[in-house]
Specification:
The chain has 403 residues and is of the alpha/beta class. The chain is built from ten helices and 13 strands.
C-alpha cells in the first residue's frame, strides 16, 4: 500500500543536499551565487586587487565606474559650454556684420565670356573705392557710410586693388591713380574716376577688370569722412612725417616727427595733394601710409585674434564701409578672422606702374607703363605677388618714409 502524501500544511519535506550533485551544462556557474561571499574563492578574488611587485594597485570596479561617470559628466558640461560659446560668437558675428551696408548690383552685367575668368585657388581680389562725396549730407542720415550711388553725384577719389593670398600669409595693395587714362565701357577713353560717376560700382568694377584682366571677387566703398570715423573708433593712428612740410595754398604745414592723428587730422593728411612733389601719386602714398598705420593699430591691439574684439571692429567698419551684397555676414566674419596670422611685414603697398603724365582731350592724365603693369596684373591674377616683389624691387613700393 502506497504511503499517503504529506500535507502541504505540515512541516516542509527535507530536501536532499544537492551540493554534491554534478552541475548540468545548462545551469549557471554556481560561483556566481550568493555563497561566493565566503571561503577561499573570496580570498582569491581579493588577491586580484593586490599589487604585484613594482606595480600600482588597480582600482576596484566600483571606483572605475565612478571615474567614468565623472569624466562623462565633465565632457558633457564642456560640450555644452563650447556649443554655447560658439553660438554666442556666431550670434555676435552675425549681429556686427549685419551693420555693414550691402551694395546691390555691384558687379558687371556683361556675359561671363566677356569677363576675366576666375583662377582657382589664387587668393581673393577686392576693389576698394574711396569717394570724394560727403557722407554726412541729410539724404544719408547720421551714419557715415558711403552714400548710395546716383549718376553724376560723385567721382571715385581713390581706387585700390587688394590681393589676399590663398593661404592668407601675404597681402598686396596696389593704388590706381584716379586720373589714369583708361577705356570705360560704353563711354570711350576717360579718366578712371569717371567710371563711378557714370555707372556706379558695376561700371567701376567692369572698368578695372578690363584694365587689369583680374576678376574682382568683392567690392568695398567708403568716403573719406568714413575713414575719419573709423580712425576715431580705433583711438587714432601714429603717422611719421619725415621732414617739415611748409604750408602751400590750402595745404597745411606739418612738423617733422611722429603725429598721433585723430580722424579729422588723418582726413587732412590723406586728402592733401597740393605741395607734394608727385601730386596725386604722392597722395596715394599718403593714403597707403594711413592704411598701414591703421592696420598696425588694429594688429597691435590684438583685435584680429580675439573674436569678441573682431566683432567690435566689424561694428565700427559697418558704420563707415559698404560692401557688395555677395559678401554674407558669415563670409565677412570669416574673411576678417582668416587674417589673424597676417603681420605688417606681410603686407606690401605700391602704386600701379607709372608711365608718365600727359594731356588728353584737354585733361591732365596719368598713363600706365603697360609692360610692367601687365607683369603686375599677371602676378596678382595667379597669386604670385611675393615672387613679383622679389623680382621687381625697384617698383613704386611704399617705403618707410612718406612725405
Amino acid at each position: 500500500m502506497d504511503p499517503k502524501p504529506e500535507s502541504t500544511d505540515g512541516p516542509p519535506v527535507d530536501e536532499p543536499d544537492r551540493t554534491d550533485e554534478p552541475q548540468r551544462a545548462d545551469e549557471p556557474d554556481r560561483a556566481d551565487g550568493p555563497d561566493r561571499t565566503d571561503g577561499p574563492d573570496r580570498a582569491a578574488r581579493l588577491s586580484l586587487f593586490e599589487p604585484r611587485d613594482g606595480e600600482e594597485p588597480p582600482e576596484p570596479p566600483t571606483r572605475r565606474r565612478r571615474t567614468r561617470r565623472v569624466l562623462l559628466w565633465t565632457l558633457s558640461v564642456l560640450l555644452v559650454l563650447v556649443l554655447g560659446t560658439g553660438g554666442a560668437l556666431f550670434w555676435a558675428a552675425d549681429h556686427y556684420a549685419s551693420s555693414v551696408t550691402r551694395i546691390p548690383d555691384a558687379f558687371p552685367t556683361a556675359p561671363e565670356s566677356a569677363q576675366p575668368k576666375p583662377v582657382p585657388a589664387s587668393g581673393l581680389n577686392l576693389l576698394l573705392v574711396g569717394l570724394d562725396a560727403r557722407s554726412d549730407v541729410p539724404t544719408t542720415g547720421s551714419r557715415a557710410e558711403a552714400p548710395v550711388w546716383r549718376e553724376g553725384a560723385a567721382r571715385s577719389d581713390t581706387m585700390m586693388l587688394l590681393h589676399l593670398s590663398d593661404d592668407r600669409r601675404s597681402a598686396s595693395l596696389v593704388s590706381l591713380a584716379r586720373d589714369t587714362w583708361v577705356d570705360v565701357p560704353g563711354h570711350g577713353r576717360a579718366k578712371l574716376n569717371a567710371a563711378y560717376s557714370w555707372g556706379g560700382p558695376a561700371l567701376m568694377t567692369e572698368t578695372v577688370q578690363n584694365l587689369t584682366g583680374i576678376r574682382i571677387d568683392h567690392l568695398a566703398v567708403v568716403d573719406w569722412n568714413g575713414f575719419r570715423a573709423l580712425t576715431d573708433a580705433v583711438g587714432g593712428v601714429d603717422i611719421a612725417i619725415p621732414r617739415t612740410i611748409e604750408a602751400v595754398g590750402e595745404a597745411r604745414a606739418w612738423e617733422a616727427g611722429t603725429h598721433h592723428m585723430d580722424g579729422a587730422q588723418a582726413l587732412l593728411y590723406v586728402r592733401e595733394r597740393y605741395g607734394l612733389p608727385g601730386g596725386d601719386l604722392d597722395r596715394t602714398k599718403r593714403q597707403q601710409n594711413f592704411l598701414r598705420a591703421l592696420m598696425l593699430r588694429i594688429m597691435d591691439s590684438g583685435t584680429l585674434t580675439s573674436p569678441s574684439r573682431l566683432g567690435g571692429l566689424l561694428q565700427s567698419v559697418g558704420e563707415v564701409v559698404s560692401v557688395d551684397d555677395r559678401l554674407s555676414n558669415t563670409d565677412l566674419f570669416q574673411l576678417a578672422w582668416s587674417l589673424r596670422s597676417l603681420r605688417p611685414d606681410d603686407v606690401r603697398f605700391m602704386n600701379a606702374p607709372f608711365g608718365g603724365f600727359d594731356t588728353r582731350d584737354g585733361q591732365s592724365v596719368v598713363l600706365l607703363d603697360e609692360r610692367p603693369a601687365a607683369q603686375l596684373w599677371e602676378a596678382m591674377r595667379n597669386d604670385r605677388m611675393p615672387q613679383y616683389f622679389q623680382e621687381h624691387r625697384a617698383g613704386d613700393t611704399l617705403g618707410a618714409e612718406v612725405d
